[in-house]
Design goal:
- By secondary structure, the protein is α+β, with helices and mostly antiparallel strands.
- It has two helices and six strands; from the N terminus they run E-E-H-E-E-E-E-H.
- The two termini are about 25 Å apart.
């Protein structure tokens, strides 16, 4: 995707929407919980500005196969009239780097993708 540092992974299109996983990193000198909170505020503000709902379904700890702890946040919203579920995985890296991995899937297909996303992200290991 133009403008992104990392490549997106796309699945087959379902009703005009392609499930995807994307990665971003950002230097932010804050604790991970604060970083998650500020991202959630941005998501809520964007939804309000675009006059769409944002439902927070769950938020909790997530641990990779490499024992790296992070935060898993699950939301539902709409993009271009498509109801989607987004699962955000937040991790800390060295030198104040924060990683956000986002799985976005059609809301009505989310159960089929939850295990795929969780299993994929459990293998995440940033280079130290």
């Amino acid at each position: 995707m133009p403008g992104f540092k990392y490549q997106f992974a796309f699945g087959p299109t379902i009703n005009t929407f392609s499930p995807n996983i994307n990665f971003v990193d950002q230097v932010m000198p804050a604790k991970l919980e604060e970083y998650v909170g500020s991202n959630l505020q941005v998501l809520q503000q964007m939804a309000a500005d675009e006059k769409r709902s944002l439902n927070i379904l769950t938020q909790g700890e997530f641990t990779t196969d490499f024992k790296r702890s992070g935060v898993r946040l699950v939301t539902e919203t709409t993009y271009d009239k498509n109801p989607v579920r987004q699962t955000f995985y937040f991790f800390e890296g060295k030198d104040d780097i924060k990683f956000v991995i986002t799985c976005t899937v059609p809301a009505d297909q989310s159960q089929a993708y939850d295990k795929i996303c969780d299993s994929s992200i459990r293998t995440f290991k940033p280079a130290d």
